[in-house]
Amino acid sequence: MDVRTFWLAGRAATGDSELTVTNPHDGRAIGRHSVPTDAQVEEAIAAAHAVAREAAALPVHVRAEALAHVSRRLAERADEIAHLITAENGKPIFWARGEVNRAVATFRFAAEEARRWSGDVQRLDTEPAAAGRLAYVSRVPYGPVLAITPFNFPLNLVAHKVAPAIAVGAPVIVKPAPATPLSSLLLGEILAETDLPAGMFSVLPIENERASALVQDPRLPVVSFTGSAPVGYAIADQVPRKHVTLELGGNAAAVVLSDADLDWAAQRIALFSNYQAGQSCIAVQRVIVEQPVYDAFVERLLPAVSGLVTGDPADEKTQVGPLVSEAAAERVEQWVQEAVAAGARVLAGGTREGATIAPTVLADVPHDAKVACEEVFGPVMILQPAASIDEAYAMVNDSKYGLQAGVFTRSLDAAFRANRELEVGGVIIGDVPSYRADQMPYGGVKDSGIGREGLHSAMEDLTYEKVMVLTGL
Ligand code: NAD
């Protein structure tokens, strides 16, 4: 089996050990990669630090062309990359193709944003004391970025950190998730084809236990983390003086109000509770339905759930594949069993075969069950009737998380009210909370994190405003 190199300051490199990556569907080894040594990690940090000034001064057309090149090459190699994502992550090929298409767009948006990225001029003579003065406001990268990424979108969530970093002129070191490093190593291969200066990017597939060398190094002033809340906050606590962005988990709610299109709501909720086997930070977990339409909604939901095609992720027709590991599926199964022991009813699914959990619908779930109040990260939804809009929105907010919420309604009033009252980073009207366009601001409140991604927002997040005052005008 070929051993993939990693990327050290823009060049292919090998260390003195290797790791094997397996397919969650059948446990087969699908690839091996070389692992950087401690000295190579140090070399990558030193190179990022050394190139930071040159990177920030890189002409915009060079950054934009590099980003456009990556977008084009991802599109050209889309089929190969989608199969790689499916093999290492277990995500059905249909969704893997979708992820590659999104990454193509993410790099294209970054190329476009890089060209629009420019300073601002403010007249200061609005006050007599500032007569004759003008402010030029530009945004400057804090410096090299450490990007720590999760397993569930092994390409596009790496793209969401690498693309804005290049767009603003910041070197970036990627530490991918150990279960799914191959997609980011392939992205490194494409980045190496560009004219970016050496040191501008590294992809270091190291073990978690060694990541603190990167997290704590003062030469990497920005830590951009996407992953679970406990790991994210533990990292932030280690480096209180760094600029830390945390894109964390959730237990997203979809609200179905009495005026909703119930067929559409049932189809979308069935699909987006189970897409990627529920392993998305905005997968539908809590379904809150206004009482008058509760029975009619459930009548539509259950056939939509049982109609989902579960199976081999490499099959083009499969909609729901395995979780990332059998251990992850065992944990989800146990949470379902705990809820059932506490009085929940299973309306669909609830069973496990290897790493695959059947799409599961639960009702009468106690408020303190883990499937209600934690992030399940599996294909499990819980149904909760609400007596009124007031109660429905209060139930959405009754969570430690606050990433996105979806509200199925045709009422503009209910929509604006949701926007005012729901404690989340994004409110999706007329669709599931799982909707994300890659160019829009994206991120959470409460335990779902700090900071925003989405190309323009991420570029702001990686930079600070610097003002130059011109005098005597
Ligand atoms: P995780 O927290 O286990 O790991 C995330 C990353 O952190 C991985 O690269 C992992 O190797 C690394 N890591 C783990 N321990 C570390 C340590 N001590 N020091 C440095 N790095 C360390 O998360 P996961 O299981 O890979 O991904 C699932 C989680 O990610 C879920 O909670 C999901 O909601 C969240 N997520 C959030 C978003 C978002 O944009 N808000 C998107 C996708 C996933």
Description:
The longest helix has 24 residues, at 93-116. It is globular, with a radius of gyration of 23 Å. The strands form seven sheets. It has a seven-stranded mixed sheet, with helices on both faces. The protein has a six-stranded mixed sheet with strand order 10-9-8-11-12-24, sandwiched between helices. It has a three-stranded mixed sheet with strand order 1-5-4, with no helix packed on it. Helix 3 (78-89) crosses helix 4 (93-116). The termini are far apart. With 473 residues, the protein is of the alpha/beta class. The chain is 38% helix and 22% strand. It contains 15 helices and 25 strands. The protein has helices at residues 38-56, 60-76, 78-89, 93-116, 156-168, 182-191, 212-215, 229-238, 262-274, 294-306, 326-341, 370-373, 389-397, 412-421, 455-461; strands at residues 3-4, 6-8, 11-13, 17-22, 29-35, 120-123, 134-141, 145-148, 172-175, 201-203, 222-226, 243-247, 253-256, 286-290, 345-348, 352-353, 356-357, 360-363, 380-386, 401-402, 404-408, 426-429, 445-446, 449-450, 463-470. Bound molecules: nicotinamide-adenine-dinucleotide (NAD).
What's this, in brief?
The protein is an alpha/beta fold and 473 residues long.
Structural class: alpha/beta
Distinct small-molecule ligands in the complex:
nicotinamide-adenine-dinucleotide
Low-confidence stretches: none
Number of beta strands: 25
Q: Helical proportion?
A: 25-40%
* Strand order across the largest sheet: 15-18-19-14-13-21-22
Tell me the span between the first and last alpha carbons: 68 Å
Percent strand equals 15-25%
Rg from alpha-carbon coordinates: 23 Å
User: How many DSSP helices?
Assistant: 15
- Main sheet summary: 7 strands, mixed
Mean pLDDT: 97
**Shape, principal axes of CA atoms:** globular
